[in-house]
Amino acid sequence: MSSGDDQLLQAMELDAKLDKIRSQVNSKLENQQQLALILQAIDENLKEQNQNINSVAYFISFLTLLDQCCINDEIKDLNMATCSVYFLDLIAPYTPKTLLKSKFSEILTKLAPTLTNSESNAPLLRSSIGILETLLLVQDMSAWINSNNYKISPKRGLTGLLELSLDPRPKVRKRAQESVNKILSTVPAGPSLEHPASHLCGEFSLNSIISLIQEQQQNQKNNNNKNIANKESNSQIIHNLQLITSITNANSWPITQISPLCDVLLEISKTSDQYLVSSSFGAFEGLFQSMNNEIDNDKFIQVLNVMFDLKPSLNDQHLAPSWLAVIAKAIISYSSNVDSFQCFLKLPQVFKIVCEFFNSQIKEVYISASQCLIAIVTDSINDLNLLSPPSVSIDNYEKIDDSINEISELLISLLNGVKFRHCAKEICELIAVLFDKLKTRCNPDFIPLLEIIGEWRSNELDGFELNTVSENVIGIAISSIGPEVVLQTLPLNLNKPNEIGRAWLLPILKSNVRNAKLNYYIKEILPLVEFFESKINNLDSDSINSKIFNTIISQIWSLLPHFMDLPSDLIESFTDEFASKLAQLLYEKVELRTVICHGLRLLVESNLAYSQGALENPIMNQQFPIEISKKNIDYLSNTIASKLLSVLFNVFSQTPMEQRNYVLETIDIYLQISKPEDLAATFDKVCSILKKALDDEKEDDLIKNDDPMGKSKIPKLSITMMDLIVLMAKYVPTTCHNALFVIFNQTIKIQDVQIQKRSYRLLTKLVETESGLNSTMQFISNILEILLETSSTTLTASKATRLNLILSIVKQLPSDYLHFIPVILSEIIISTKSVNEKTRESSYQILIAMGSKMIEFNGVPIKNSLNDKDMPDSIASLEEFFTMCSAGLVGATPNMVSAAITSISCLLYEYHSKISTDYLVEINSTVELFLTSKNREIIKSTLGFLKVSILSLPEDITTSNMKSLLTNLLMASHEHKNHFKSKIKHIIERLIRKFGVELIEECIPEQDKKLVMNIKKSKARAKKKKIADAATSTVTGTGSNSKPLGDSKFMSGYDAALYGDSDSEFEDDESDDEFNKPKNNNNRSQQYISESRDQPLDLLDKQTLSHISSSKPKKFTKKSFENGTVSNSSFKTKNGKLVINENGISENNGDDDNDVLGKNSIDAYVEAVKQGPVRGQKNRLKFDKKEKGDGINWDDEDGDRRNGNGGGRGGFRGGRGGRGGSRGGSRGGFRGGDRGGVRKPQGKFRGGKKF
User: Fold this and answer.
1) Peptide bond into 348 cis (omega under 30)
2) Which residues, if any, are the signal sequence (predicted)?
3) What is the 3-state secondary structure (H, E, C) of 217-272?
4) Sign of CA dihedral 786, 791, 795, 799
5) Less CB within 10 Å around the terminal CB: N or C of the chain?
């Protein structure tokens, strides 16, 4: 691109920015409006003077304006100066560099007052910094050197910028530090690759931070209030460290100042202030990461040498961990940014220096040393350096080998040294990481380490603290260098009684074996099974030794799948002989089927995944090339697969249904790699067996319903064969597809639920493949015809699988077969009310898929005449599909009408944005009419539709119909005895939240306006409670993390629309919705358990309920008789009989009203009559409400309040009764048909509305 094009692009970019400012002339923000007005005035001025409007004209105009605002280095008009500098900062990058370079001193002189004046605010300074940055970026090498000793030079401007980099104002400081970094990163053309101002920046920041540290130390000696002094100086030091980081990130820190910088940073790292330590590490990291090429190699080595020279004392628990952390970052940066190979060669030296800290007895120090080396090994060793020839040169290979040998010798000396016993755990953790990183390059240098650690574990001392870490090292060694190498060093010796046995290795092998030699397992480990089986034959089956030997046998067999996980010698080891042995065991030993099937499956899966590049590891890819895994698959496909499938089919037919999954998975993986001709032959055999099995079955053998107990039995042969055919459907060649369609056609009509399910699954699986889909499309007309014919003959338990097939067909339905949608639609709609959740979910998905088809083929004719000659054809569109669904609204049964409303709700939620407004109004008004229905099922679905419509429809549609909507809603509530009161209240709450309470109050019927008042009060109470809870949680330090059901992340958008809580503001109110939350414990009926000390209550006894009472039982103790609370004359026992005092009056002065002994029979009768039922309004039975605390409402009337003495607030209440009166009104006003305050569960939209 030419320079002219660049200038044009820059001019267009500047114009775009200025146009954006011009558009803000009417902004409500004063600062934006002021900028627009000033720019407008400058534009008019330039036009009046007939000047070219470009960046130079703008720059000169605003510079002149700035000069007018400043007189004698003082700012007279701060607002105007701020606006002028803002525009200069915006325009300067687009101003020609030659102008900025030649007029540097003049521009800087005019800018100086804004940079140096104490009254300059943060916005003014930030813009001034931006202008200064632009000026300094365009200066060449000669200007920076200033050989003429000009008084105003770039270095002087940079010095001012450095001072602003330490400004206490965060935004000013950040802008200045970013400018310093950008200036130092842009080195002017010249012989040096280092910026001429780097020494200036380094000296300034270093001197500043040293003086701050010295000042802090002096203040700590003199100042009594050390905390305040430390806090202020720490902040300043952090600001300075941020400046150092900006300089180091630009790779501009002078080499001569590296040593003092490291010294200062390490000194800061010793402090206990985590922010200081973090900032110092950031400076270190910037220093390391800035050196990122071979040119910086010498510089980096110098930094490392300086760091090693600053090594702290071994027992310095403050500085040593910080120093070790910095060393780790340095080595990692050197490897990743400069030279990973040279870094590896220096690792022995680094290990020797860092391992000295293992001598420390301070736990923090030697743990830090271990973590330092672990980080270095993990992040600095490049896998490419560990490759073998010819991928690397022999010379480099040997150098790496020498380095590994040095490291291993150092670690061996650590493990053998008694003085390192205290940190043996940390050393073992380091060895484990080395094994994991170096892989096979550990062999043979690390074998002595393995021997030492293995000896520790072999001692088998209980409570030995290194057992766990030893097992971890051995396990990682197994995965890195292979089990055969480890077992040669640490043999199992299970069949050698005179040697140390290591049965504990078996579970370690199980967890870590992969990509090992299968032949080693077959020859060395598996024969141990026969050895222990012979031992068991000579023992009692219940003996301890017999159980131990059985456990060992199980552990040996459990290793089989892991040795078959990507074996390195599959072709040599997995022979016909070994495969035959496994097949025989599958037949003979049921307990081994799971293990063997798992191994056979892993054998194929691991090779398939590896051949597709699932594991990208350079070392493993060199040792086990991907080509070998492809050869393994070919070998299994050509020689093993067909034979194994025959065995697996037989085993599958002998396995109970609930235990078949692992066999099915194994069959599936071998079907994937089988040759087409083998698959075709196997498929023909299975088909012939199925035909014979179906022919032999009698009518009594058919299963009409699902039998839960049948899963534990071996199913009949026809079901087994159908399972196999379903599994093979995806893999058989296209020549077999005709046979699949024949099987589908025949089995779909059999009145056996298990056969029907598998018949539908057969075609569903076939459609999943491209070839199967093509074949299906060839027979689509026949398939659709069969689906329509079997609509009435499909068993209920098979509905879900049928709908899955219909869903797959609809998604692929061609435009010529859209007439299938209207004819099958009624079945889909009615399925939305199924009791089976899977059926409901599938029906919703089908409706959405049908809608998508209508959108996809919009305008295509729907040939309804093919279904019925009397039906006219129609045009595909989304509105037409809604019309089809609306036909269900005139259904003969309430169930059909309810299902149609539910279906429309689902479609409205999904496609409301793609339907015209007029049609939305029509749908909404049509469905709203069903609020007048007398059927509760229809009302329930209609309320669900209204929830969706309020959420989805444009606001103007809902507002225009608000009065009618509210009238119908409240009428439905009254008509159905408040059965839907809670749901309707939630809808009104949504309306208030969306449209405001004023509109709702205006449109709601006059007699129900107190409902709105109740909701407003509920909202106010909820807010108060929320504030109180927040205050309580703040004081106690606790908070609630629970969420309401509607917030569940597993809920779909449609579910959330239907079932979501109305508003979080209402969920905290303890009484607004009695369906959502239990009442206060104080209002619950009091229940008591009566039991004696001699006979405690048995909760399993059928008579338990007779011991539960609403009256508190009296407890009579010896003390009661002594103090006169209970008189001895009240009752006496004689010959085991209860004798009641004739006067019938207790001597407790009537204190206990519930004591039956304190009342005579006449009083009891009168009270019973008073509490008896009376006929009230509408001839309903009513009881006296003077309760004794049992909390039971015996009224006939649904939804009525309890009449407390004070009376509750009557009418239509949102779940909360009145609070007037001494005994309180009812809190059950909004009950929706509940009896006497006993709450019914607020279920989930029954009848299939979960979607």
Assistant:
1) no
2) none
3) HHHHHHCCCHHHHHHHHHHHHHHHHHHHHHHHHCCCCCHHHHHHHHHHHHHHHCCC
4) positive
5) N
Q: Is residue 1243 part of a domain?
A: no
Answer yes or no: are the C-beta atoms of 901 and 941 closer than 8 Å. Answer: yes
CB-based contacts of 904, cutoff 8 Å, min separation 6: 882, 885, 886, 923, 927, 945
pLDDT for 946-997, tens place per residue? 999 998 888 888 898 898 899 888 888 888 777 888 888 889 988 988 888 8
Do the beta carbons of residue 839 and residue 803 sit within 8 Å? yes
For 938-963, letters b (16+ CB in 10 Å) and e give bbbbbbbbbbbbbbbbeeebbeebbe
Residues 520, 502: Cα–Cα separation, whole Å: 17
CATH of the domain at 866: 1.25.10.10
Distance CA 268, CA 367 (A): 21
d(CA 583, CA 566): 20
Domain CATH for 81: 1.25.10
Query: How many residues does this entry show for the chain?
Result: 1251
Percent helix / strand / coil, the chain, rounded to 5: 65, 0, 30
User: Token pair for residue 792?
Assistant: 């009435």
At residue 875, what are phi and psi to the nearest 5 degrees?
-110, 135
Residues 359/419, Cβ–Cβ less than 8 Å: yes
Helix or strand holding residue 1130 (H, E): none
- Of 978, 1011, 1040, the residue that ends a domain is 978
DSSP single-letter state for residue 430: H
Question: What region does 1243 belong to: left with phi over 0, alpha with psi -120 to 50, or beta?
Answer: beta
* Long-range CB contact pairs, 1059-1065, < 8 A, 24+: 1059/1244, 1059/1245, 1062/986, 1062/989, 1062/990, 1062/993, 1063/989, 1063/990, 1063/993, 1065/1019, 1065/1022, 1065/1023, 1065/1026
pTM of the entire predicted model: 0.71
Report the distance separating Cα 832 and Cα 799, nearest Å. 12
Contact criterion met (CB below 8 Å) for 752 and 700: no
Beta strands in 52-134 (DSSP E): 70-71, 74-75
Percent of the chain with pLDDT over 70: 80
Taking only the tens place, the pLDDT of each residue in 504-521 is 999 999 999 999 999 999
- In tens, the pLDDT along 33-68 reads 999 999 999 999 988 888 888 899 999 999 999 988
d(CA 391, CA 274): 46
Which domain, by its residues, includes 876?
Answer: 811-978
Tell me the two tokens of residue 620.
Answer: 């493993």
Tokens matching residue 418? 């008694």
Task: Tell me 28's DSSP state.
Answer: S
> Domain total for the chain?
3
DSSP helix/strand/coil, 321: helix
Joined together, the tokens standing for residue 801 give 């699988």
Are 757 and 801 contacting, i.e. CB atoms less than 8 angstroms apart? yes
Beta strands in 534-583 (DSSP E): none
Q: Which residues share a beta bridge with 1175?
A: 1181
In a domain, 204, yes or no: no
Domain membership of residue 709 (yes or no) is no
Round to whole Å and give the CA distance between 1021 and 1024: 5
